Amino acid sequence: MDDLNFTGNSKIMFEEVCNATPWLFRHFTRNGLVKGLKEEGCGQVTEETMYKVCKQVTPEKHLALTMEILDKHKSSSS
Fold first, then answer.
1. How many whole angstroms separate alpha carbon 4 and alpha carbon 45?
2. DSSP notation for the chain
3. Residue 4 contacts residue 34 (beta carbons within 8 Å)
């Protein structure tokens, strides 16, 4: 994850999505997000990238909650 550079509120979005996952499954969420971000080929993680990757890697039944978390932390400039 050291090769990812978070901009705007993308870091807090990442952390809050991970923290919303039950502790037992949190590493799956974190690993899935990191893998998705790396597959995007972006070293620069923007808020837009977080939305895109979360939509790709989040199971359908959890997508609405994930989008709520991202919306809560979206900066006004995005």
1. 7
2. -TT-EE-TTHHHHHHHHHHTS-GGGHHHHHHHHHHHHHHTT-SEE-HHHHHHHHHHHS-HHHHHHHHHHHHHH--TT-
3. yes
- Please state, in angstroms and rounded to a whole number, the distance separating the CA atoms of residues 30 and 42: 17
Q: Are strands 5-6 and 44-45 parallel, antiparallel or unpaired?
A: parallel
Reading the chain (78 residues) residue by residue, the pLDDT tens digits are 668 899 999 999 999 999 999 999 999 999 999 999 998 876 789 999 999 999 999 999 999 999 999 999 998 764
